[in-house]
Amino acid sequence: MDKATRKQLFSIPVVVAALGYLVDIYDLLLFGIVRIPSLKGIGVPDSDVLEKGIFLINAQMIGLLIGGIIWGVFGDKKGRLSVLFGSILLYSAANIANGFVTTISQYAVIRFLAGVGLAGELGAGITLVAEILPKEVRGYGTTLVATVGMLGAVLAYFVAEAFDWRIAYFIGGGLGIILLITRLSVFESGLFENMRKTAVRRGNFLQLFTSMDRLKKYIGCILIGTPTWYVVGILVILSPEFGVALGIGEPIIAGRAVMYSYIGLAVGDMSSGLISQWLRSRKKVILMFILFTGVQIVLYVIAPIRTSGFLYLMCGMLGFSVGYWALFVTVASEQFGTNLRATVTTTVPNFIRGTLPALNFFFLQARAQWGILNGALVVGAGAILIALAALSLLRETFYKDLNYVEED
């Protein structure tokens, strides 16, 4: 990599987008890490911790789903930077407010608002990076953003270990405010600025549904990520319950499981991005990682070694296997024109996150029918098959020029 390329790759917008995603992941995963102590802290009995925890996760994910549409459309109409500023204000305020909750109702409302705010960060950042970097190196840029971002989960774990859960929320909100100050030095995408001077319609969400080709691509971009939040939202966040079902004597700490899984995710995102650059293909690498995820899901449930250390190792391997997150978000940004790019790139990851309530529903039904372990296998197999079918709907985009718009 020559000096000019390194300068582009480590430019201010890329670095700030990476740090922004780190704070985003910190806040997004913090509830999963402090789920048990925070629920007990507001008086939830042990017997209700799983049910109430899933309820609050669903509230956050629904917020992400709605926020993805709002911020995505806003990003194409008003600009990528407007989303970066607005979203961070909302989720920072919400996380500070989370430190004051005393009831499940309050907790649910604030996690919903935090979800709405968190929905704008990744899509706007990836769109901005993809548009300012040459096509030959934009994969490196989005990989850098994702790899740094995933370390936010590690930071969240250590903060939650060192401080009370309420303080951990305050710290997350404070990091967001500090990040907002750094964003003042970031410049807008040149592709967006040029498009803004034209009469082309921007951010029309319904335009995704007026063409069968666009709709097929959009659905494909969403569903290839189904295994990612099945792994994180169910297998990892609910690892204490899986530990009991597996007969592990030592209690499993959810925060530690999340930390190991996101270390794996960071390594996986870096690996998938670099392999994609080496193979000059996005689709081949995504296929490899989806299949590997299927193998890891089976091993998580049926591996004969039943110790806490092995379960944490499996969480790390599961994280690595779904470490194609940045890659499929990059694919989403490359599939569509500049007038819909932020809409797609922001909604896709949040619609994937928004599938978690449905996955939780099917998991709870499967658990009631077949038990927690077999139920996890059934739902996991479904997530893998859906992702493989969705991948077949997408075209290779590695060499695609992004300087174009979607016609009505």
Helix content: over 70%
| Shape estimate | globular
Largest sheet: none
Strand content: under 5%
Which radius of gyration do the C-alpha atoms yield? 20 Å
Helix and strand run: HHHHHHHHHHHHHHHHHHH
Mean pLDDT reading: 85
Ranges where pLDDT stays below 50 over 5 or more residues in a row are none
Q: Structurally, how many domains make up the residues?
A: 1
Under CATH, the homologous superfamily reads MFS general substrate transporter like domains
Q: What is the second-level CATH architecture? A: Up-down Bundle
Annotation, overall tally of beta strands = 0
Describe the 3D structure.
The protein has 19 helices and no strands. It has 408 residues and is mostly helical. The chain has one domain: Up-down Bundle (Growth Hormone, Chain: A).
